[in-house]
Specification:
There is one protein chain. The chain has 223 residues and is mainly alpha-helical. It has 12 helices and no strands. The longest helix is centred in the first third of the chain and has 23 residues. The chain is elongated and about 55 Å long. The termini are far apart.
Length: 223
């Protein structure tokens, strides 16, 4: 579990770092801004941004959890802000590849945190999951299977059932015949069928549509 007081302390520190980096960005001092974000993360963790970006999200969290001198969850929240701000810095330079990669890693780390700690207060200086997902989609970024799955879990948990279904079918369209996507979809529909009608209606996915979707996927697995 995260420590609320320490988390708020790191969020305040993160806000100061992002404010400073944004000021440098506005003055076209991009490298100085990147040095600011990298330096803040290096000071907190001993590693700079590129070192952390070279790790898979699950490895980042495992690494942080083994550091006795760090609050792993709290530090991951700080890292979310650093990745996002660097994405904005690269976007301001029209370096779309580096920007989108950092936005993707921000989304992945956000999802890993929110799907484990749904009530964790993420910093307001970072775009929300829907905003990041929309930005990546608009930029034509194909999400990895694990990210699509995590998005489905997130939207199902937050009651946005029709959005979870949209993610599923975007995933199926991107990876036709993917058994992983079909299995995730079947699990989603089966979980939704356990919910009351009123909750399904509120999530814009009534029971008849859930049943129809499940039948379609089960049929697809038999083909």
């Amino acid at each position: 579990m995260y420590k609320k007081d320490y988390l708020m302390q790191l969020v305040a520190q993160l806000t100061a770092v992002i404010t400073q980096a944004a000021r440098l960005r506005d003055d076209d001092e991009y490298q100085e801004a990147l040095d600011t974000t990298d330096g803040a993360l290096r000071q907190l963790t001993g590693l700079g941004t590129n070192a952390w970006l070279s790790m898979a999200t699950e490895d980042i969290l495992a690494n942080l959890s083994m550091r006795d001198d760090l609050g792993g969850v709290e530090t991951a929240v700080f890292m979310v802000g650093i990745f996002y701000q660097e994405g904005e810095l690269y976007a301001a330079q029209d370096d779309d590849d580096r920007a989108d990669y950092r936005f993707l890693r921000t989304l992945q780390l956000q999802l890993a945190l929110l799907n484990t700690y749904p009530d964790i207060p993420l910093p307001s200086v970072v775009a929300t999951v829907p905003a990041l997902n929309g930005r990546l989609t608009e930029n034509g970024v194909i999400l990895p299977a694990a990210t699509n799955h995590a998005l489905m879990v997130y939207y199902e948990a937050t009651g946005a059932f029709s959005t979870a279904e949209d993610i599923l079918y975007d995933w199926i369209d991107a990876e036709p015949g993917s058994s992983e996507a079909l299995e995730a979809g079947i699990a989603l529909y089966q979980q939704l069928l356990l919910k009351p009608d009123e909750e399904l209606e509120a999530g814009n996915l009534p029971r008849d549509e859930v049943t129809e979707g499940l039948e379609d996927l089960l049929q697809a697995t038999d083909e």
